[in-house]
Design brief:
The protein is an alpha/beta fold and 216 residues long. It has nine helices and nine strands. Strands 3-2-1-9 form a four-stranded parallel β-sheet.
């Protein structure tokens, strides 16, 4: 049984959600501690590697200040596996009715992925108002999201895909964006070298950048 989120909305957990790909589950706890220490407690562990579920289980069990979620969720089976491993929110790159039903039944918050206005309308029709916008940069970026805000103001987004420290503020300034997802605070060489201090510094910079935008 997972504990409730500190917020009723995934989009309000933190302005920046690190999108993490973990190849070695042994790295999960120190990496999560570095991100939390840097001010980024919401951590999306993508289901792209065999180590992902073990990594989520370790973070959920050993890093109490982290809010670990599962990303790249694409099947109902993965929904069940992720929640069993301790995921407290779910993120998908896209959605089907079957996947949406499984995520809704899981009991944890979820962000189904969209990249078109029709997909947004279809989710609104199904009672879903919070979504992942993916792949953000390739799908039209801030200009596209700004265009959606007029006719579809009830939809809120977490844009992910191609976002870095230079573009994150532009997204966070939009009224229909609650947070952004990204991996710029997790450079591959820092993870490979297990340079947790560097990751903590980069996480702190990302959290500070977000604070500057959201508190402007």
């Amino acid at each position: 049984m997972t504990s409730p989120l500190p917020s009723s909305s995934v989009l309000d957990l933190a302005p920046v959600v690190p999108v993490v790909v973990i190849d070695d589950a042994a790295d999960a706890v120190p990496l999560a501690r570095a991100l939390v220490a840097g001010g980024l407690p919401a951590i999306e562990v993508t289901l792209r590697t065999p180590a992902a579920l073990g990594a989520m289980r370790a973070i959920a069990g050993e890093v109490p200040d982290a809010v670990v979620g599962a990303g790249t969720v694409i099947t109902p089976e993965q929904v069940a596996e992720a929640v069993d491993a301790g995921a407290r929110f779910l993120v998908s790159p896209g959605w089907t009715d079957g996947l949406l039903e499984a995520m809704r039944a899981s009991g944890v918050p979820f962000l189904p992925g969209v990249s078109t206005a029709s997909e947004v309308v279809a989710l609104l029709e199904r009672g879903v108002r919070e979504m992942k916008f993916f792949p953000a940069q390739a799908a039209g970026g801030t200009a596209y999201l700004k265009s959606l805000a007029g006719p579809l103001p009830q939809a809120r987004f977490c844009p992910t895909g191609g976002i870095g420290p230079d573009t994150a503020p532009e997204y966070l300034a939009l009224p229909n964006v609650g947070c952004v997802g990204g991996s710029w605070m997790l450079p591959a060489d820092a993870v490979a070298d297990r340079d947790w201090a560097r990751i903590e510094r980069l996480a702190r910079a990302a959290a500070g950048l977000s604070a500057d935008v959201t508190c402007r």
